[in-house]
Amino acid sequence: MTSGATSNDDVWLVIPVFNEAQVIRDVAANAAKTFPNIVCVDDGSRDDSAAQIRAAGVRLVRHPVNLGQGAAIQTGVEYARAQPGARYFVTFDADGQHRVDDVVAMIERLRTEPVDIIVGTRFAEGRSESVPLLRRMALRTIVFLSPRTRRLGLTDAHNGLRAFNKTVADDLDLVMAGMSHASEFVALIDHHGWRVAEQPVTILYTDYSRAKGQSLINGVNIVADGLLHPRMRK
Fold first, then answer.
1. Helical segments of 33-165, H only
2. Which candidate in 32, 94, 136, 186 could, as Cys together with 17 as Cys, close a disulfide (CB 3.0–4.6 Å)?
3. So what's the pLDDT on residue 127?
4. Rounded to an integer, what is the distance from CA 148 to the centroid of its chain?
5. How far apart are CA 77 and CA 63, in angstroms?
6. What share of residues in the chain are helix, strand, coil (percent, to 5)?
7. Which residue range or ranges hold the Glycosyltransferase 2-like domain (predicted)?
8. Beta-carbon-side half-sphere exposure of residue 90 (alpha carbons within 13 Å)
9. What is the full DSSP assignment across 113-142?
């Protein structure tokens, strides 16, 4: 554990996991060097993910069946917000795309700035060039089709790296179980009036993570699914 880890005792990383046995042990163990409080939610994995999570030495919560990433995040946040001293929360991908250094910067901003939730963005400071073309098209399409996202000034609302305070965690109630939960996050920010900001982040695209990425059509379907849900029409 790094020397700065103890200063992050009030931070909880929530990692939704579905069939990530190849990478989750390294991802969780590396993050735990800086953030000692991590809960991985094994969302009905059919591989060895649960055993790899235990081997990493972090907390494990299991769904008996696959419910979707939104449900896994909700379960993880409910677990984390019940822990003594928990003040800050981070949604962190299991596939190795997210950098701990970016989380450190986001938490520092939560501690020092008047903001409730910070969403990572790949579209700042020229970073979008590292995003694969089809992925970039999908993400831009999602923003184009979401007036609420544009009104809030978000450029990358479907970035899975988010950091937020206990105000957000206590009121978080995701009901869209699948990938559309990202659009629901935006709706909840708008509904509750949470103070939101973006943080330029670097996404580490590997052959492994690219194979799990969203296609352009999937991105459009996510937005369409959200527009049909009663919460999203409010």
1. 49-56, 69-81, 100-112, 133-144, 147-151
2. 94
3. 52
4. 19
5. 14
6. 45, 15, 40
7. 13-171
8. 31
9. SS-SEEEEESSSTTGGGGS-HHHHHHHHHH
* Mean pLDDT calculated for residue range 187-204: 93
The two structure tokens encoding residue 94: 């299991």
Tokens representing 17 are: 């996991």
The letter for the amino acid at 3 is S
Q: What does the pLDDT look like over 208-223, one tens digit per residue?
A: 876 765 544 454 555 5
Cα atoms in the 13 Å half-sphere on the side-chain side of 196:
26
C-alpha to C-alpha distances, 172 to 74, 76, 132, 146, nearest whole angstrom: 8, 11, 31, 21
Q: How many CB atoms lie within 10 A of CB 109?
A: 13
Joined tokens for residue 79? 């677990």
